[in-house]
Amino acid sequence: MRILAFFLLFTVMVAVVAAPQAGERERLPPGIMSASELIGLLEAQLGGEIVEIQFDGRDKSGRPAYEVYHVDASGRRTELKVDARTGRVLKRETDD
Q1: Residue 42 clears pLDDT 90, i.e. is over it
Q2: Which domain CATH number covers 53?
């Protein structure tokens, strides 16, 4: 029963984090994908689940980027730096 309760709580938390915020598109600079657009793209490419996403401003090379946390089917968590214009993964760091 505790496992089911934890799973339901986790699912609700992910839904809240992933839900587009009111006015999300208006707050982003022109040409930047919204968080909800990027989540759809990454989950289709990578499988698994996006558990956290945050617009990170610009990466070291000046590109607008998102910081994304992804969990694959085996439960491995990976931190991604993703180009906010194209959705291309720029950097990956997987937890051991």
Answers
A1: yes
A2: 3.10.450.40
Share of the chain above pLDDT 70, in %: 72
Counting the structural domains of the chain, the total is: 1
Q: What's the order of all strands across the beta sheet hosting 77-83?
A: 49-58, 64-71, 77-83, 89-94
Angle at 87 (CA atoms; ends 95, 23), nearest 5 degrees: 105
The owner of tokens 């040409």 is 31
Q: Which domain holds residue 73?
A: 2-94
Among residues 36, 16, 13, the alpha carbon closest in space to that of 24 is found at 36
Joined tokens for residue 88: 């291309």
Q: What is the pTM of this model?
A: 0.68
